[in-house]
Each structure stands twice: as C-alpha cells, then as structure tokens.
Amino acid sequence: MSAQDYTLYGAPGWGSVLAEAMLARCGVPFTVVDVQGFDAEGPARQRLLALNPLGQIPTLVLPDGAVMTESAAIALLLAERHPDAGLAPPPDAPERAAFLRLLVWMVANVYPTFTYGDYPERWVKESPGDLGASAVAHRKTLWLWLESQMGGGPWVLGERFSALDIYVGAMVHWRPRRDWFAEHCPNLSGVAGRVLALPTLVPVWHRNFGGAP
What we know:
9 helices
C-alpha cells in the first residue's frame, strides 16, 4: 500500500460495498481491510472503533490520513475529487437537484430499514419478528415509489450514470432481493443489471456477493 492509497474498512456483503464500488469506479488505488465480525465484540470491532467510534462501515481512510464515514458523504467527496468517474452530476447539470434529493432520500429512508429490520432483536425485546417484517414491507413501498419516479433511461437519473445506480446495484442483493425487483420494479431491476455488468465493478460484486452478476 502506498501513501496515496485510500484504505476502506468493510466486510463482504455489507454496506461497505457501496464505497468499494465507488472507489473502483474512480479507478484509484485502494486497499480493503476486512473487518468481518465488526458488529460483535472482538478484534475486528476494536480495530474499527479505533478509527470510527460509532463502529460502522464503510469507514474510509483518505490518502492524507483523514477518516471519512457515511456512504453519501463518501460519494460526494469522491465525486468532487474524481469528477471523471461520474458519481454525481456537476453543479450546473439539470440532474443535480434530483441527484442530491435521491441520494439523501436513499440514506435517510431506505438505509434505516436495514438498520432496524435486519436485526430487530437489537431494538425490541417483544416480537422482534414483527419489526423485521414491517421494515421489509416498508422498504418495498419505498422501492415502489422510486420505481414510479423513473423515466425511460438506463439509469436512475435517466441518461446519466451516478452513484445512485451503485446503491441500486448493491441493494438488490438484500431483502426483498432480485426476484422481487424483477417482478415489481422492472426499471430498477434493469438499472441493477446494467451496473452489475460494468467491467470495472464486476470484481467488487463478486468479492462481496459471489457468483455471476
């Protein structure tokens, strides 16, 4: 690893795949430090806590040693530093407002359904299964809303690729999973298929989810 590398702390199949795919899209040198098991007490969690006291991934160490967290913030930072990657429309682009709105919508609305729905026993003592099921049901309504907002282009923003497509490509692997998207959200399913097939990102998807795109 050189002094110019980014260093990403993450775990296969978790939310760190978002930052990993963005870094790959940017074509910059980076190293992935696997902290699988970070969500339980142990060496991996302690290693992560030394950088991010919240114990969350992705945690990205920038080439100058600064620590960056929160996937949306990482997306915006990388978009500024590596504009040729197309992670975000430029400030004067007509799609800019929609991009910012949907990026914040994604992390403020969709992402919390995983936080509370995938491990409901952490948040409620009685009937955690009900919370989990409710979170997945709400997640479906959110995806259906996004599906209704899409036009006829190949990407979430129409003809312009962005980090939003990376979010979709990763999240179709999580509940309600790809078969549900194919049946109920054909436009989003199409976005996912295209972003999963991008040659620069295929190794990222394979490392995190295994199998073919």
